[in-house]
Amino acid sequence: MDLKVGVVGFGLRSGLYEHAHRPGAGSVVTMVCDTSERGRADAAKKLPEARITADLGELLDAGLDAVLVLTPDNQHAVVAKRTLEAGIPTFCEKPLDVTLDAVDEVLETAFRTGTKLYVGHNMRHMPVVRQMREIIESGAIGAVKAVWCRHFVGNGGDYYFKDWHAERKNTTSLLLQKGAHDIDVIHWLAGGYTQRVSAVGDLAVYGDVESRRDNTDRRMGDWFSLENWPPAEQTDLNPVIDVEDISMMQMTLDNGVLASYQQCHFTPDYWRNYTVIGTAGRLENFGDDAGNLIKVWNTRSQDGYVEADLEVEIEAAGGGHGGADPRLIAEFLRFAAEGGPTETSPVAARAAVAAGVLATESLRTDGSAKVVPALGGELLAYFAANQERINA
């Protein structure tokens, strides 16, 4: 019998419903909750047989087998705590929330209720990330000692500065909202979590753009264009912009690995570049799409840039985010129905938020290092056991 799946929030990430709506093949979206009239109208058009509501309580009482929480970031914990309390296995989009206190409340609710929690860090399913991790685990570069990530957010003006993303009250910062993906990947590749972090950043370009508009009546598809260039000539930016458009953070991980992350929202190109350096070599991706390359150097040279010792082509996979989205939802639905290990982790999701939140605090003060508060041992043990009671 198909799992009955609900969706809360039918906005920017609503496309994930397609991977959960497979009538007769394992799962079907039977209900959508959205507080906006447009969200409900969009849901009714795409899911004509589903129940559509603005009342979360109605969804909680609908006898669902799983739920996708796809609201704006600052509503993740508010909704997820209620779905967990209702006993519904819960997928929560990343970041888990925009404050560390809210994130810890979600984890504590999942622990107390025993309801399954899954966080949507889809990059753990992206071919480029998985292949880099496989190379590292093969021992090809030795023990990891450093990870660098440069994120060129070429569509930053269109994606993040024309709607709710541009405001701290909704996101804390784009270093958290956008960077949570990369921080999690850095942790995954390095095999540790950030223990201490510092950062610098600035609103260097978009704060000076005078063209502003309330875009709550529109969606990104209504304004996005590659012709919106150069960045200083963007139009119709959000009335309030108080997040940085360029940020740089440095991390010391709990296993001694050093890491850095740089994010810029006014570059012309859009991709991520990771460099991982180990005791026997280094790897670096040149592009992050199918057909691009991951290169590995192991041979010492004094001739400047030399060709890599190994080149690995990034695999093709169907679906959004390089094939990650369908794998992500498939894993969640399997976890909701059967339990067991998953590639994503609520503890890892908490670690990414903690690093992003404290880095933001650092860059908005004096740039000094901030220490990440530890998660309780009982919670660590519970999530390490795939959310099964140790003494069950």
CATH class category of the largest domain: Alpha Beta
| SS content category | alpha/beta
| Largest sheet strand order | 14-13-12-11-7-10-9-8-15
Tally of alpha and pi helices: 14
| Parts with pLDDT < 50 across at least 5 consecutive residues | none
CATH architecture of the largest domain: 2-Layer Sandwich
Could you give the order of the helices and strands? EHEHEHEHEHEHEHHHHEHEEEEEEHHEH
| Percent helix range | 25-40%
The separation of the N and C termini measures 28 Å
Q: Mean pLDDT across all residues, rounded?
A: 96
For CATH, the homologous superfamily of the largest domain is named as: Dihydrodipicolinate Reductase, domain 2
How many domains make up the 3D coordinates? 2
Q: Strand share of the residues?
A: 15-25%
Q: What radius of gyration results from the CA coordinates?
A: 21 Å
- CATH fold call of the largest domain: Dihydrodipicolinate Reductase, domain 2
| Count of individual beta strands | 15
Report the biggest beta sheet as strand number plus sense, adding barrel if it closes. Answer: 9 strands, mixed
Shape: globular
